[in-house]
Amino acid sequence: MIVLKDEIEINAPPSKLVEWFSHIDERYREWHPEHILARYIKGTPFEEGSILYFEEYLGKPKYKFRFFVTKAEPGTKMEYKILFPYTLLNSRGSFTLQKQGEGTRFIAVVSVGWGGAVGRLLDRIYWLFGGGRLKEIRRHMADEGVNMKKLMEG
C-alpha cells in the first residue's frame, strides 16, 4: 500500500476549520488554485454516508472524484474512499483535526493499493507507471496544507 501524508500546524482552533469545511462547496476554489468545484451529492460535512463530488487539476490533467465518507468523527476526523474508477486502486484517505493548545494539527492522508505480497508487487508496478501522478498528488497535498494555514491564520 502506498500512503501519502501531509501534516501542518495551524494557529486556529479546530472549530474554525470545521466551519470552513462545512461550506466547502462555496470555498473550495479559494483553498487551491487547481481546485475547480466541490459539492455534496448526498449528506453533509463530517457525516458518514455522505458523498462529495470534486473536480480539480493535479498537474495538467483534470480529475473528477466522488468521495464516500466511510467514517466521521464530527469536528475531528473524516475518512473516505474514492469511488469508481479509483476503487480499482483501493484509493482512500482522511482529514484529521488534532487540537494542539490553541491551534490545530491538520493531517491529510491519501492511500492507494493493497496489502500482502501481491499488493506490494502491484504497488511497485503503480510506482513505475504512475509515480509522476503520485508526486503531483503529494505536491498538491502539501500546497493544500500551506494554503489552509494561510486561510485560517489570515
Task: Characterize the structure shown.
35% of the residues lie in helices and 40% in strands. β3 and β4 (62-73) form a beta hairpin. A seven-stranded antiparallel beta sheet has the order 1-7-6-5-4-3-2. The chain is α+β, with helices and mostly antiparallel strands. It has one domain: Alpha-D-Glucose-1,6-Bisphosphate, Chain A, domain 4, CATH 3.30.530.20.
Domains counted in the coordinates: how many?
Answer: 1
Share of residues in strands: 35-45%
What characterizes the major β-sheet? 7 strands, antiparallel
Content-based structural category: alpha+beta
- Rg estimate, integer Å: 15 Å
Got a strand count? 7
Count of individual helical segments: 3
Which architecture does the CATH hierarchy give at level 2?
A: 2-Layer Sandwich
How would you write the strand order of the largest sheet? 1-7-6-5-4-3-2
CATH class: Alpha Beta
Low-confidence stretches: none
Topology pattern, helix = H, strand = E:
EHHEEEEEEH
The CATH superfamily is identified as: START domain
Question: What is the rounded distance between the termini?
Answer: 36 Å
Mean pLDDT: 90
Proportion in helices: 25-40%
Q: What is the CATH topology assignment?
A: Alpha-D-Glucose-1,6-Bisphosphate, Chain A, domain 4
The 3D shape can be described as globular
